Amino acid sequence: MTPLLSIQALSARYQHSLILNNINFDLSAATITGMVGSSGSGKTTLAKVITGEVPRLSGRILWCGNELQQSRTREQLRQIQMVYQDPYISLNPRISVGKMLGELLTFIRGIKKQDLLYEVEKLLNQVHLSKDFIPALPGQLSGGQRQRVAIARALAVSPRLLIADEPTSSLDVTIRTSILDLFKELRDVLGISILFISHDLLAVRYVCNDVIVMEHGEIVEQSSAEQLFNFPASRTSKNLASSIPRLKINDSQ
Q: How far apart are CA 53 and CA 50, in angstroms?
């Protein structure tokens, strides 16, 4: 089966430094793949190369078997969406939730005016928010609510891949778990793939099918989450696995 996304021998520079070196991995449809590593290991840069925000030095990015160029069509840009650590990056503080989602539904998906309210409510329902949030401004929302709106904003254009860059790091434990459960639900119900970038190894273990470990701009290990955390192969993976608190996440949260 052709991977949803295939990264082949990808390298990238920032100024005169090689940030990514010979990166190779595949992402399948309807999976959550974790990406872990120390700060400066190249995780966020790799995410930006995948979205086209940062140019690659060499290598190939294949989307459903077709190569993505640096200059992409609107359709290609729509297929891959980012969810950031800080929702304010993607949420305009002066625009209400309803208007923000409505504009995307109108201009990207061509939703007619008479159907707009229904589609906005449907999006909010997908992230477990009620229609009461339609007139709200981002500043009136809690951190967890803002992150749900940011996810709804990404979903508004019907992507097939979400790249979530530290999406729960600023949230408290209870809210964090509910957002992780939402990601799993989106995978299972909508069939969306998620590249989940995080320093939170408990979260990665809880939500991910597979895990990629990066160090110094290279992939040092890629395996199932169970394999990585129970039988790590690389020195970096062993150090990461040994640092996880021996606490069990309650699935009922």
A: 8
Beta strands of the chain (E only): which ranges?
A: 5-14, 17-27, 32-36, 58-63, 66-67, 80-83, 161-165, 193-197, 210-215, 218-224
Q: Could you read off the pLDDT of 41-83 as tens digits, one per residue?
A: 999 999 999 999 999 999 999 999 999 998 899 899 999 999 9
How much is the pTM? 0.92
- Amino acid (1-letter code) at residue 172: D
The secondary structure of the chain in percent helix, strand, coil, rounded to multiples of 5, reads: 40, 25, 35
Question: 188, 30, 186: which is closest to 123 by C-alpha?
Answer: 186
End-to-end CA distance of the chain: 35
H-helix segments, 21-167: 43-51, 74-79, 97-107, 113-126, 143-155
CB atoms within 10 A of CB 88: 13
Range with top average pLDDT, 24-28, 170-174, 241-245: 24-28
pLDDT of residue 156 exceeding 70, the answer is: yes
Q: Report whether 46 contacts 212 (CB < 8 A).
A: no
Q: Where are the domains of the chain?
A: 5-40+48-197+236-242
- What residue type is assigned to position 253 of the chain? Q
CATH architecture, domain defined by 5-40+48-197+236-242:
3-Layer(aba) Sandwich (3.40)
Q: In this structure, are residues 34 and 225 in contact, taking their beta carbons and an 8 Å threshold? A: yes
Q: What is the mean pLDDT of the chain?
A: 92
